[in-house]
Design brief:
single chain, alpha+beta, eight-stranded mixed β-sheet, 4 helices, globular
């Protein structure tokens, strides 16, 4: 569900004055891989919740959101809480993951990413950055075809990924989410791959649709599964993030 339009809210861009200057490429086969993960998973038969036939007022966002902290709360309610419950229900599959605040892991890093996914040993697995969706400069989809603007909006989460040795990351406005991963080629050169933009309003369409239509929660489940199988990466590529 999109955030409600409120009268008073922050109206300034929160993009940092940095730019990603490294190799940036689309994430090949992302949507198909998410779908294959969903269809191939042996799902727990545990009941995680009920759906009311009438409109359920508690499944909708009732608190007005006017800044990034509010977006963070809404994000954790609709994505973090739900996915943590799904991860826990799949415990026989060893999915030991939880969405959390960055301060929930032991780290001396001076930055503070907005959202992380960690394992039960408090190891960082996915790092994410949130922006409010009503600022034009924060819109992700229009930037996919404008390379310089895309590199600017992705620079902050990519910086966190490189600094913290995290293979997987994301940028989200709650209404739009793009997923990122660090990949190293056979010549030892690192690059960032980015997914299509996934809307929070998108629901899963069964395999008949090509390319597949998948939800944000399915994407987070897929990325989480992959992240849980990887140790920290050591990407020391110079000049990836530059000031502008």
């Amino acid at each position: 569900m999109d955030l409600e339009n409120v009268k008073y809210r922050t109206n300034s861009s929160a993009l940092h004055n940095i730019f990603f200057a490294g190799d940036l490429q689309p994430w090949p086969g992302f949507l198909s891989a998410v779908q294959a993960c969903h269809e191939g998973c042996t799902w727990s038969r545990q009941i995680l919740g009920y759906t009311l036939q009438a409109r359920d007022p508690y499944t909708h966002g009732n608190v007005e959101v006017g800044d990034e902290h509010g977006v963070q709360g809404r994000f954790q309610k609709f994505f973090g809480d739900v996915l943590d419950t799904i991860f826990a229900s799949q415990s026989t599959g060893h999915i030991n993951l939880r969405f959390a605040d960055f301060k929930c892991i032991p780290s001396t890093y001076t930055g503070t990413p907005d959202v992380i996914v960690k394992d039960n040993n408090h190891a960082l697995k996915v790092v994410g950055e949130l922006k409010v969706p009503w600022i034009t400069e924060h819109h992700i989809q229009p930037r996919l075809t404008r390379d310089r603007l895309l590199r600017k909006i992705l620079a902050q989460p990519i910086k966190y990924m490189q600094d913290l040795g995290c293979m997987y990351g994301f940028l989200s406005t709650y209404e739009e989410t793009i997923f990122l991963r660090q990949v190293i080629d056979n010549n030892g050169v690192w690059r960032i791959e980015y997914s299509p933009v996934i809307l929070s309003s998108t629901t899963y369409d069964r395999p008949e649709t090509q390319p597949p239509i998948v939800s944000v929660k399915q994407c987070f489940f897929y990325v989480g599964i992959n992240a849980s199988m990887h140790e920290p990466v050591n990407n020391r590529s110079p000049g990836w993030i530059i000031s502008v």
